[in-house]
Amino acid sequence: MKRLIQSCLALIITVAIIIDGYLLFFKNRNATAESTTQTSTSAASFSQKASSASQSSSARQKYQNGTYTGKATATQWGDVQVQTVIKNGKITSVKVLEYPNDNGHDKEINAQALPTYKAETLKKQSAKIQLVSGASETYKGFTGSLQNALDQAEG
Asked: Which CATH class name applies to 2-47+64-153?
């Protein structure tokens, strides 16, 4: 009887781990692909609007044009540092200069989280982005460094 209970618990735990892995990695890939598609569509729409905009809109820009590097933000697993490019007062790109990648787990988590965080930044045009489950330390470092870069860029 004891062996039967142990076998059932082992089976339940294995199924839970498989479901959690699916939700963490495969669902996030789909969300990242959708975000990338939406970002591409938004960028094309932005380009069309920007070409027809007048010079008076540049006076209302939230950020000054340029490249800004945020301070490295310390996390439990290592520093995160980002650099952002501002064109026409908008965030046009985000580059991650430093992030935890010392082991396979760090690399796996950040391979999923960082593209999502970068796409969210372009979509939201701020450091107020959604957290990716399982990457909260990277989130803290990414948003901290990004906010520092955006503070430098504010006009």
From this structure: alpha beta
